[in-house]
Amino acid sequence: MTLQQIAFHAGCSLATVSRVLKGDGPVSDEMVRRVRRAAAELGYRPPPGGGGARNRPVVGVLVPSVTNPVFAASLAGIQHRLQAAGHGVLIAQSNYDPASEARAVAALLEQRPTGLILTLCNAGTSEALSAALPPTILLNNRPVPRFPAAVTVDNYRAGCEITRHILAHRHRRILFVSGHFASSDRARLRYEGHCAAMKEAGHTPLPAMEIPFVDGYENLDLSGVAEVHRPTAIIASNDLLAVGVIAALRREGLSVPTDVSVAGFDGIAIGRLMNPPLTTMAMPDGDMGVAAAALLLDIAENAQQCRHLCLDHRLYPGGTVRMVSEER
């Protein structure tokens, strides 16, 4: 297989094919798709030599944290799908810092990836990223005009549903504890869904308690808000934070769910191993990674149209939310 054959199949010049395959030089998005589709249809693979594995096509992946089980599951799904397609994976993390995302993406671009899969703190800040990007998929962020291809769950609806579940257990004073909304539009959407469900039921939602995502879990102090708001239930914006909430309540001499009910989001394994198991809104994190990788391959290699895939979440009732006999 020669570059000339790819050029003929794609209907372009040899120089254009060379620029696309090397990721070097100005080429329109449409021409990139045509060349990559032609290369895929003709079974082209980079020649051996010059570093071996370095010639293997790679995809850059940005996540907020590689230690969070949610993103670890998504990364496993991404790697599984891309390895099956002969692609490697480059990983960068933002540490939930919007200011560091552009630098992290720039570092990925230095490796000339064939595509990017990005979980941003807030998709609305995408304007800060480089203007010249390969095919890009948002993972966990809603699509935006610049990045119409995305794989998400409906975090707003999930926030509504977990709140309705707790309201059905006769709780009225429900506190939402979250990492900073500026660091996660997923957390913000979950809180907005919570507020909507509270208002729907005729209750005024409490202000969210926001803490740092990176180092705020282990030493969480709930004494002040517990004294002011006296919540009978607490919703954490993710399961790791829910575990931190339970530990903080125990430090205050409170039991879960006897004194305070607790719920989270994500459905990570540690929540199911707790006693009682954590009440949570389980998310298909591994499947989302597989879907994002498959969507990227479709767009980058087969010139498919950008799509927004929204996967289903589900309630895992667990045992950390109890029925209250009356408003306390």
TrEMBL record:
<keyword id="KW-0238">DNA-binding</keyword>
<keyword id="KW-0614">Plasmid</keyword>
<dbReference type="GO" id="GO:0003700">
    <property type="term" value="F:DNA-binding transcription factor activity"/>
</dbReference>
<dbReference type="Pfam" id="PF13377">
    <property type="entry name" value="Peripla_BP_3"/>
</dbReference>
<dbReference type="Pfam" id="PF00356">
    <property type="entry name" value="LacI"/>
</dbReference>
<protein>
    <submittedName>
        <fullName>HTH-type transcriptional regulator GntR</fullName>
    </submittedName>
</protein>
<dbReference type="GO" id="GO:0000976">
    <property type="term" value="F:transcription cis-regulatory region binding"/>
</dbReference>
<feature type="domain" description="HTH lacI-type">
    <location>
        <begin position="1"/>
        <end position="55"/>
    </location>
</feature>
<keyword id="KW-0804">Transcription</keyword>
<dbReference type="InterPro" id="IPR046335">
    <property type="entry name" value="LacI/GalR-like_sensor"/>
</dbReference>
<dbReference type="InterPro" id="IPR000843">
    <property type="entry name" value="HTH_LacI"/>
</dbReference>
<dbReference type="InterPro" id="IPR028082">
    <property type="entry name" value="Peripla_BP_I"/>
</dbReference>
<dbReference type="InterPro" id="IPR010982">
    <property type="entry name" value="Lambda_DNA-bd_dom_sf"/>
</dbReference>
<keyword id="KW-0805">Transcription regulation</keyword>
